[in-house]
Amino acid sequence: MSAILVAPDKFKGSADAPTVADALAAGIADADPHREVRRLPVADGGEGTVAAALAAGWAPVTVDATGPTGRPLTVTYARRGPTALVELAAVAGLGALPDHAFRPLDATTHGLGTVLAHALDAGADEIVVGIGGSATTDGGAGLLTGLGARVLDADGRELPPGGAALARASRIDLSTLHPRAHEVPIVFACDVDNPLLGATGAAAVYGPQKGASPEQVAELDAALGRWASVLARTAGRDVADVPGAGAAGGTPCGAMAVLGASLRPGVETVLELVGFPAALRDAELVVTGEGCLDRQTLHGKAPVGVARAARAAGIPVVAVAGDCTLGDDELRAAGFAGVYTVAAIAPDRATALADAPALLRRIGAELVPVHTASRPSRVR
């Protein structure tokens, strides 16, 4: 009998992706003890990306850096062969803000640059950066300073961190940039197509999620416009209108202009890095999911990426979620042959969050007879 591939994202607030995968796999084993179950936690480039890589066998690398407010923290990135996988959320994400207090004007990606510098020092020949969940709107200026560059005002003074200060940016000193920064490909895993500026840009669309008032959004957008001009003057390349340049507060911009960094689809990149195509071979069914299946799921989230890849291989996909707000037509169009939710079997939300692993195990057992063949299992 063919295998079942369990490839969920995290259930935010209740269980990380490896825990979800373990719970579902245990339930499948309860229903069919001889079934081969492959566990492959996934992510979309945001929080949990490194955890997914580590679960797939990548090696952890720990480094001291600074968070979005400059507070020291310890970060883990993943390494396999010559490739380093870094998660922005771990070092400059909303979850890294002290006391979860927003800092829309001065949050920085400097620590992300520090982590990239560590990977370069350690000999990485490719760096992939998952950039979901950022707390910053600094156009990637902090990333460049973390790699050794200096962002200066008209008087030659270094600017303080954050997006608002970029309103005074005049030039970039690259003389102290990390010596390997131009040599090593840097790839940003990204599933949004927002440009840097304007009504659909970094500040306007994502600034409010990071605590920016309407006045601060306007201030940040103007500052990013100044920064884009400085980047174009320094590197001879204007990236402000490139789709995706506005992702994560414009984080890719500095590296795209100065270092030639590139963008790749987030979910597809992560699936490739964790070995999803190989895990899919000979699978009869794929089980994926996340905390809530909603409209955001349809726009670059991990479950839809998993469904797309599985359907291309002719393998049905079942989704498991904490809750689901999508209609039947939307779910079918996304490629799901069935959907199970924790909310449907939990007596209340508190229980759903607190007892998620046990409830997911129940769901794992329930879906086996519905979505798999009944012929005798074969032990591998």
From TrEMBL:
SUPFAM superfamilies: Glycerate kinase I. It comes from the Bacteria. NCBIfam families: glycerate kinase. One of its GO terms (molecular function) is glycerate kinase activity. This is Glycerate kinase. Belongs to the glycerate kinase type-1 family. InterPro entries: Glyc_kinase_flavodox-like_fold, Glycerate_kinase, Glycerate_kinase_RE-like, Glycerate_kinase_sf. One of its GO terms (biological process) is organic acid phosphorylation. Keywords: Kinase, Transferase. Pfam families: Gly_kinase (PF02595).
